[in-house]
Amino acid sequence: MKAWEISGPEGGIGALHLAERPDPEPGPGEVAVAITASALNFRDLATVEAPDGRVARYPLIPNSDGAGEVVAVGEGVETLAPGIRVTSAFFKNWIDGAISAPIMAGALGGASNDGVLAETIVLPATAVVRAPAHLSDAEAATLPCAALTAWHALVEKGRVMAGETVLVLGTGGVSIFALQFAAMHGARCIVTSSSDAKLERARDLGAEGTINYRSTPDWDRAVLDLTGGAGADHVIEVGGPGTLERSANAVRIGGRISLIGILTGAAGQASPTTLMRKSVTLQGIYVGSRAMFERMNRAVETHQLKPVIDSSFAFDRAPEAFACMKAAGHFGKIVVER
């Protein structure tokens, strides 16, 4: 079979290598899945560009999110059979309960764990989830990381309620899913972006307020204006140090900030004073468990939610998909299809 590999610590999109590997066979408790679509996350791009410190062995197959069809099952697997459509779970061994260091070590496409950017993968049967029937494989492939992260933040931890206000930073995968989940629960959503065209698309998806942070650099004040001075109940914080202080200004007293990404970089400072004085809950979110995934999928099926795919690339053009993500012009998800 063919698989894309990170071949060494030098990194870079240009260093991705399309290799031939033996067809994998499932062992006891495992399943083999023919991957037909893989969705990219910022974490995948970061791993490809700078694998040193992220990758423990080479070569390594990148990407955590894939969808396809079960083609073989190992001994003892009774809940799955060839022909069933599934998606990968981001963590190989987070079934339920709290996250832990051993769970974190099982993230696909990093450390010593091959990812899904291959024609066929083998995973524990507990590390795949049935795909929603109304979604294509490309759409289903967007769920394991971005969708589940947004669901975990807003629903599992945030308990978002109708009438509340959700502030979403940007229009990448997590942010657009957060917009869709907020609308699903009857919450009001405010979206920021540097692109008026993207903000128009966000309004089409249900955003009630939009702010261009390039023309309105004090976007935190604009959020307060849109909420009558109260602030947002929930903030989906994907920027990191470069945006956290303004997010703290924009959230209401007693509100919640879900810290998900570091698109502005890992270094920087944010004063804790505002968070303390406003009694804000600052929660780090690292994807979610299989149990959360299954609850989310039930909601996705019930509401017939359709993920937003910005662009799709053929399997043999996978490096172009990473270049597209690096350019940061996408709205929603980027997918590699076979």
Give me a quick take on this structure.
29% of the residues lie in helices and 25% in strands.
Summary keywords:
single chain; 338 residues; alpha/beta; Quinone Oxidoreductase, Chain A, domain 1; Rossmann fold; 2 domains; 6-stranded parallel sheet; 11 helices; 15 strands; 29% helix
Classified in CATH, the superfamily of the largest domain is Medium-chain alcohol dehydrogenases, catalytic domain
Order of helices and strands: EEEHEEHEEHHEHEHEHEHEHEHEHE
CATH C-level category of the largest domain: Alpha Beta
Number of domains: 2
% residues in beta strands: 25-35%
Q: What value does the average pLDDT take?
A: 96
Overview of this structure, please?
With 338 residues, the protein is an alpha/beta fold. The protein folds into 2 domains: 2-142 and 307-337, Quinone Oxidoreductase, Chain A, domain 1; 147-284, 3-Layer(aba) Sandwich (Rossmann fold), CATH 3.40.50.720. Helix content is 29%, strand content 25%. It has 11 helices and 15 strands. Strands 3, 4, 5, 6, 7, 14 and 15 form a 7-stranded mixed beta sheet that branches. Strands 10-9-8-11-12-13 form a 6-stranded parallel beta sheet, with helices on both faces. Strands 1-2 form a two-stranded antiparallel ribbon. Helix 4 (143-157) packs across helix 5 (173-184) and helix 7 (219-226) packs parallel to helix 8. The chain is globular and about 60 Å long. The model has no long low-confidence stretch (mean pLDDT 96).
